[in-house]
Amino acid sequence: MSRTLSTVILIVMSLGLNAFAADDQKPLDVVIRNGTVIDGSGTARFQADVGIRDGRIVAIGKLANAKAKQTINAKGLVVCPGFVDLHSHADRGILKFRDAENYIRQGATTLLCGNCGSSPVDIAAYFKKLRAGGTGPNIAQLIGHSSVRLHVIGSEDVPPTKQQLAEMRQVVKRAMQDGAVGLSSGLRYGPGAYAKTSEVVALAEEVGKQGGFYATHMRDEGTKIIEAIQEALLVGQSAGVPVHISHHKISSVSVFGQTRQTLALIDQARKNGRDVTLDQYPYRAGSGSTGLYVPQASLSGGREVFRKRIADKVQRRQIIEAVEELLVRKIYEADHDPRTPVHTRAALARIGIARAAHDNTLEGKQLVQILESRKKPVTLRNGAELLLELVSHGVGGINYTIDDRPGGDMERVMKHPQTCIASDGSVFLFGQGSPHPRSYGCFPRVLGHFVREKKLLTLETAIHKMSALPAKRLGWKDRGLIKVGHGADVVVFDPATITDRATFLKPHQHSVGVKHVLVRGEFVLKNEKMTGKRPGRPIAGQGKRG
What we know:
By secondary structure, this protein is an alpha/beta fold. It is 34% helix and 18% strand. It has helices at residues 3-15, 101-104, 123-133, 145-152, 162-177, 197-208, 225-239, 259-271, 303-311, 313-331, 341-348, 367-373, 380-392, 409-415, 438-453, 459-466, 468-473; strands spanning 28-37, 46-53, 56-61, 68-73, 78-81, 83-85, 108-113, 138-141, 143-144, 182-186, 213-217, 243-245, 276-280, 286-289, 351-355, 396-399, 419-421, 490-493, 514-519, 522-526, 529-530.
């Protein structure tokens, strides 16, 4: 920190919010005037100007006399910390789509990547590439258990040998030393699903030694979610690490309402002194590979081996029966009968197609529509047969199996004090495929629909869940708040108009209402236009800053 910047910060801190002693030698880089500041702490909003220099917030108060290179009039607008997305998969495309415009236009200034067990294995090499070209938002990174397992063991459904487990621990240790902030798991699908709890504990121990945390896409989010929560808590307790539950929801229609029990388990763990947090995306549908609908053991060895299995009559029948059993639990309501056509039609309409590289005409369609277009009866068996075909081609699906009814699971999770808002989205070519709309609309959807329209949360609480709360999960001391000395990741938005535009049928639509976004004190969005700047950098764990 320069002597000039230190002097400014000390003066502002000593004089309080209502005064600012301008530095005669050097103007501020940016002054945001006349805005309504919601600082991210959850406390009440206030009117103030915000001064920025050298990538830091150096003044908050009445800055009428301050000189600045750039001035923004934020009258009628909210000035708040940039949103910290704790659950992004942007590492899949950020090196190609570095601007991450879909996130910037939501107000997201930092993306935590490497979730659900999937990540680059060589974090140092990955961070080097990120720094070389820059990015719109900052990037933090988890090391993925499934990726480590694939790197060391392969895609087989086998336990690691003693030597392999030691090698996996070394990979995780090196990743943490290179800047990862924790370990993620994806225990619902292979190869993560092939791991026993003890394997995950062993890797989480390496994370705990270096101040990281364990983020988990649990082994089940439906009829076996209680056991899955208990496993996640056991990993944290055994390894001595904080636990973060990813995209918490009930994803089986037959057991809607069980967040009452899951949240109670989390509350009890916290009461017992355990550090447990969670995140959520605000949509009635999830997204993922259609491979989630088949027994994970059937995918062991990869897609080609799966095709051979379903070509065998005996194995195919066993897999089909398992798929049918899972579908009954996941997409049928508790009192619905699979033998009743109207019930089956409603159930199979809950699975849609997001991406189908082998046949893009399927994208955006539901299983019911595909069966009807092929003139096949809409039955449970035909739905299961269709899923085997889709899985064999690696098709991505959208699953309309989340309870968004008033007072239901979604609202219950959103109101929980430890729930962060997170997208579970990614970056990609605008207009390509049929992705989940959360990649374009997560944060504005909460601010527009759940705050302004439904009044489920206050604006202060919602912004806290998008900024200071996730920053605390990451262990940050200098980001996540509008506060003197903090990094200048700042969003200016119109609370009267901010909203999401992306839908499941038309997902490639940017959100509206965000006027300006600064990352590290530089405008990446100004007057609702992308500037082409890429000031974002990796933010490493262990107290380092990229």
